[in-house]
Specification:
The complex is a heterodimer.
Chain A: E1 2-10, E2 16-25, E3 30-34, H1 41-48, E4 56-61, E5 64-65, H2 71-76, E6 78-82, H3 93-97, H4 99-103, H5 108-121, H6 126-129, H7 139-150, E7 157-161, H8 169-186, E8 189-194, H9 197-203, E9 206-211, E10 214-219, H10 221-226, H11 231-237, H12 241-244, H13 251-254, E11 261-263, H14 268-278, E12 282-286, E13 296-301, H15 302-307, H16 315-318, E14 326-327, H17 332-341, E15 346-350, E16 356-361, H18 362-378
Parallel strand pairs in A: 3-8, 3-9, 6-7, 7-8, 11-12, 14-15
Antiparallel strand pairs in A: 1-2, 1-4, 4-5, 9-10, 12-13, 15-16
Helix pairs in contact in A: 5-7
Chain B: H1 6-12, H2 14-48, H3 50-65, H4 68-79, H5 83-107, H6 111-119, H7 124-158, H8 166-175, H9 179-207, H10 210-219
Classes of the chains: A alpha/beta, B mainly alpha.
Chain lengths: 379, 220
């Protein structure tokens, strides 16, 4: 959809504020550009609608070099929302939304219908707001108008430059939610600049972490949290943020990986020995004991073994095969739900092929809470 | 002379006074209109072109600084006396407030508003005509008002170089030591200045976009 190829930008002809930047944005995706102030995120955004001209490189929109159409034409195809909103104070809310439709020569009726429609979209009753002036509205309401205005001629792409940064936290959160809802309904491609990591994680399908005019990492929120590309990204994200973001956590992130299993051919005496040595109450049975993960057959507890008279019985025949397992990529919320519903204290974790790769216990959950609290104290 | 009171004097000279008042309005009006035609575009130009800003404002400032009587004196060798040089000098006087206010008005339109306008695809011309000028209009109008009021006063001096107007009555009165005559020129001049100021004030309010007027109200 949008492709930035080897883009560089210099304001004074000497220092490159953006250097060899490549960014590929897919259709229908929300991409967040994030970084400290001066990292070039806003410059990058403003190069997409040519408010800043790149010094080098090309930008493709839908595969076409965007300099082929005039700046004015280009900008009318891209919605633009800025932090300070920039509503025209001398125009009513309705007229503000209708600016571009009017310049495009839409007739009055069509313009008004569109403005009404958009006021509905941003949750402001049109009858009440159409004829009001911007200064009569709160900051949050003004930015809703800003978003409605950006949608006026139904652009496929919307550029947003810290649109919610100036709002109070409650309003900000509300507008973030509504943006996501809007995105579900309209499926726009959105490029979103922010310096707020919480915001980026909340709304971004992908996040580009920028520093000194370069993209350090371009990945999903999960990827950024779990595999920061370098120390800066890790620092910028916040070391323990992952643990405070349960919706990003998967079963494999919190499971115990050092797992003791026994082969199905072991005798009860041997298994008791292993359990005593490792201080285990229960142990999972697999085909054979190798370092390679294998599917779990069932589990054995000390109680089962104690009741067992036959000293040569095979584990596979006495183990309890009635257990719940969970996929490695199951969400934390699902993990907790299963543990609660089934009253399970041990939850085996399986990989895509059904092999046992880890175990989630109540201790893992405790461990998680500890880390989250530690992260809280750190920040 | 003392047996004629002021009102009797005005009544006896009413035709002449009305003529002079109309002449006064004509001179000032023409000078201000010419100053608007030059001053507003120049003000817009220097709001866009930073290089031209200080030379233009500098020159306009010089005209404003020269005492009016001296400026009339300076213009006589060039344009002689009479109607044309008078209007020309008054025009020079009217320029600075109009240029300056236009420049300030345009320049004080919020950056975010311009950025939003450009970003959504308005051309520079559309931004000027649909955003900057409407928002600057009250300030520009303020400049016109100041120019006009100053010029009504200055125009009395223009009578010295034969422009006519109410100044003629004042200077004649001074030379004839007639208080009635001086007052018959001075009082209408003062009334004219006050009433024009009021009228233009009403215009200024009318021209202020609604969204901004009510903004000021709520600010109070």
């Amino acid at each position: 959809m949008i492709e930035l190829v080897n883009i560089s930008k210099s304001y004074d002809g000497k220092i490159n504020v953006i250097e060899n930047l490549n960014l590929h944005i897919n259709k229908g995706e929300i991409v967040v550009l994030i970084g400290e102030s001066g990292c070039g995120k806003t410059t990058t955004l403003r190069m997409i609608n040519r408010l800043n001209e790149p010094t080098g490189g090309t930008i493709l929109i839908n595969g076409e070099d965007y300099t082929k159409i005039s700046k004015i034409e280009l900008r009318r195809q891209l919605g633009y929302v800025i932090q300070k909103v920039g509503l025209m104070p001398h125009l009513t809310v309705g007229k503000n939304i209708e600016i571009i439709p009017e310049l495009k020569g839409w007739d009055k009726q069509k313009r008004k219908e569109r403005a009404y429609e958009l006021l509905d979209v941003v949750d402001l009753p049109p009858e009440e707001y159409y004829d009001r002036f911007p200064h009569e509205l709160s900051g949050g309401q003004q930015q809703r108008i800003g978003v409605a205005r950006a949608l006026a001629v139904n652009p496929d792409i919307i550029l947003m430059d810290e649109p919610f940064s100036a709002l109070d936290p409650v309003t900000r959160e509300q507008l973030q939610k509504e943006l996501l809802k809007l995105q579900d309904e309209l499926g726009k491609t959105i490029v979103f600049v922010t310096h707020d990591m919480d915001e980026a994680l909340k709304i971004g399908d992908r996040i580009a972490v920028m520093k000194d005019g370069k993209i350090l990492q371009y990945d999903t929120p999960e990827g950024i949290l779990k595999n920061p590309a370098n120390d800066f990204v890790e620092y910028f994200v916040g070391k323990n943020r992952l643990w405070k973001t349960p919706e990003m956590l998967r079963a494999e992130d919190i499971m115990h990986k050092s797992l003791v299993t026994v082969g199905q051919k072991r005798s009860p005496a041997q298994v008791i020995e292993v359990m005593k040595e490792k201080d285990l109450e229960r142990i999972f049975i697999v085909e054979t004991e190798t370092s390679k993960p294998q599917p779990p057959i069932g589990f054995i507890t000390r109680a089962i073994l104690r009741e067992q008279g036959d000293k040569n019985v095979k584990m596979s025949s006495i183990c309890n095969k009635n257990f719940v397992a969970i996929q490695h990529d199951a969400k934390m919320t699902d993990v907790l739900k299963i543990m609660e519903d089934r009253d399970a204290r041990h939850l085996p974790v399986l990989d895509d092929d059904g092999n046992l790769i880890g175990m989630i216990t109540t201790a893992s959950i405790l461990n998680l809470i500890t880390k989250a609290v530690a992260g809280e104290e750190e920040s | 002379m003392n047996d004629v009171n002021f009102f009797q004097f005005v009544a006896s000279r009413s035709d002449e006074l009305i003529g002079l008042t109309i002449q006064h309005i004509q001179i000032t009006g023409l000078a201000v209109i010419l100053a608007i035609f030059l001053g507003v575009p120049v003000g817009i130009l220097i709001s866009k072109n930073k290089n031209m800003r200080s030379p233009v404002l500098g020159i306009a400032n010089i005209f404003q600084t020269i005492p009016s009587l001296a400026l009339f004196g300076l213009i006589i060798p060039l344009l002689g006396t009479g109607y044309v040089p008078s209007v020309f000098v008054l025009f020079l006087y009217a320029l600075l407030p109009i240029i300056k206010n236009t420049f300030i008005g345009i320049n004080s339109v919020g950056e975010a508003i311009i950025d939003a306008g450009r970003g959504m695809g308005m051309t520079s011309k559309q931004i000027l005509t649909k955003v900057e000028i409407p928002l600057a209009l009250p300030v520009i109008m303020g400049g016109i008002r100041i120019s006009t009021v100053i010029n009504i006063g200055t125009a009395t001096i223009a009578a010295l170089i034969g422009a006519g107007g109410l100044g003629e009555m004042i200077f004649k009165g001074i030379s004839m030591a007639s208080n009635n005559m001086v007052l018959a020129g001075a009082i209408p001049t003062a009334l004219l200045a006050i009433s024009i100021d009021k009228i233009l004030g009403i215009f200024e309010t009318k021209l202020t976009p609604k969204g901004i007027t009510s903004q000021k109200d709520t600010a109070k």
